[in-house]
Design goal:
By secondary structure, the chain is an alpha+beta fold. It is 27% helix and 35% strand. It is built from five helices and 23 strands.
């Protein structure tokens, strides 16, 4: 900056000396070509329209579509494991059996208790009906009538309680047979036959992951996320179509994954990594090439091409009013142009409002030039 000031003073000093010899009328005249600031040709660029397929690239990691660490819901001895690690199992397939003996006994006792309650209820109902018939003629005391009514209500409650106990006993017995909650690839057994297992066991009976489809999570800088979300919202409000993305991944070793993915959602919080937001994409995985925890390169490309005017990012300035550029008017005077920026393509930024094809903008040193300055563009050879 100090060198630039020296150059500027050196350029303007001869003009100031020459101005001392002129009349007052000439002193009040506007800027002329002789007073213009000289800009090199490579400091000014012409805005051009081009068609691009916006792309991005970032690192990602694979994650299972769904996973489960299955523990028993009742405590019992393990009788059998019906699977081996690494197998593909189907939803509903029997995987583990626990000793059902104690639960079968509990179920039998619950059935007997229900039958007893039902018999008592039948007697209580008959007594209540008889009491209602005898009371109008005074053949039963108020005390006997109230006792018959209470026995009737109590018997009904006892039947309901016995039915609930029977249902619970049946449920516990059913829980001695553990089946696959969904289709997927299973881990080795977490317990051996004969182990006493239960809800408080440290290790699960098995772990199950669904591999098709498969998620790929990629972290994006919060600044880029904010720009993307706000821009998309603004374009939607203005009725501008935003092209969908075709997402692909590159595997470790440079191999291209044969299937394309579809963006699903952004993470619910920004806590996954400092300064980053995680975006999730869903990929088909019929061959089960992808496994949870793999590192991949995520690439995105717009399905539909975008046609817009582009300017170098270094030409775009920003202040409280927003983004702007310093443009060179047809009369050679610099003017400020407020712009609305869109997608990025390499080192360039698309502009969907504020510039047109053929406009000239300062691409280098714009922050040191004020609007209203007259400039003269010369080649380096001049």
């Amino acid at each position: 900056m100090h060198n630039w000031k020296i150059v500027t003073v050196a350029m303007l000093l001869p003009l100031a000396i020459a101005g001392c010899d002129r009349g007052s009328q000439e002193k009040t005249a506007g800027p002329s070509a002789d007073t213009a600031v000289v800009l090199a040709a490579d400091q000014v660029g012409t805005v051009a329209t081009r068609t691009v397929n916006p792309t991005f690239e970032l690192t990602g990691i694979t994650a299972a579509y769904q996973s489960a660490r299955v523990k028993p819901q009742v405590q019992a001895r393990l009788l059998a494991n019906h699977f081996a690690g690494g197998e593909q199992v189907a939803e509903g397939q029997l995987l583990v059996e626990l000793d059902p003996a104690s639960f079968e006994a509990s179920l039998a006792a619950a059935k007997a208790q229900l039958e007893s309650a039902q018999a008592a209820s039948t007697q209580a109902v008959a007594n209540w009906k008889r009491a209602e018939e005898l009371k109008p003629d005074g053949f039963i005391s108020e005390l006997d009538y109230d006792q018959a009514k209470a026995s009737f209500s109590s018997a009904g409650a006892a039947v309901s309680e016995a039915e609930a106990a029977l249902q619970k006993a049946q449920l516990n017995l059913d829980r001695t047979r553990i089946v696959a909650p969904f289709s997927g690839r299973i881990s080795p057994p977490g317990h051996a036959v004969g182990d006493l297992v239960g809800p408080l066991s440290v290790n699960p009976l098995f772990e199950l992951v669904q591999l098709d489809p498969m998620y790929v999570d990629g972290a994006v800088e919060q600044g880029k996320y904010n720009h993307f979300v706000l821009l998309r919202k603004k374009l939607d409000a203005e009725g501008v179509d935003v092209p969908e993305l075709k997402v692909s991944i590159q595997l470790t070793g440079g191999e291209e994954y044969p299937y394309s993915g579809k963006f699903q959602s952004w993470d619910h919080s920004a806590k996954a990594a400092p300064g980053m937001i995680v975006g999730r994409t869903l990929f088909p995985n019929p061959d089960q090439i992808l496994l949870p925890g793999q590192n991949v390169i995520v690439r995105g490309e717009a399905i539909e091409a975008v046609t817009a005017v582009f300017v170098p990012q270094r030409a775009v300035l920003q202040d409280q009013q927003g983004h702007y550029v310093i443009a060179v008017g047809d009369d050679g005077v610099l003017v400020r142009r407020n712009i609305e920026v869109g997608i990025r393509d390499g080192a360039d930024w698309s502009v969907y409002k504020g510039l047109e094809e053929g406009d000239r903008v300062v691409v280098r040193g714009a922050d040191r030039l004020a609007p209203g300055t007259r400039v003269r563009i010369v080649d380096d050879t001049q």
